[in-house]
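User: I'm putting together notes for a lab meeting next week and I want to include a structural view of one of the chains we've been expressing. I don't have a solved structure, so I'd like a prediction I can at least talk through. The sequence is below, exactly as it appears in our construct file.
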Amino acid sequence: MVRTLALLLAQLAAAPIVSEMVETGDRRPVDLASFECRDINRSTVLQRVCYDPARHDLVVATGGSYARYCGVAAETVDRLLGAPSMGQFFNRHIRREAAGGRYDCSA
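Assistant: Thanks for the context. Below is the predicted structure for the 107-residue chain, given as structure tokens.
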């Protein structure tokens, strides 16, 4: 058993680290290597929230697809994660603000 565990650990140590890439709704790939991601299990709207605090970029999985929001303050992400209804907070304060507005990445 110890030998099997040692072999498994050696294989894990030798495995290359591959960053995760996701494609957003606008067909742009986003490398999540610099993002802190959390799987969400207490929301019917959000499945995953990934945030890059250095770039203030937020990537959110909703309905099985990813969307990217730019210029999102860390305080806003903290409020999202702590909201009683994450879906309502997201729809009111982030998604609505993205369409040609404050969190639109193409602006």
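A couple of points you could mention at the meeting. The chain has one domain: 16-98. The longest strand covers residues 46-52.

User: Perfect, that's what I needed.
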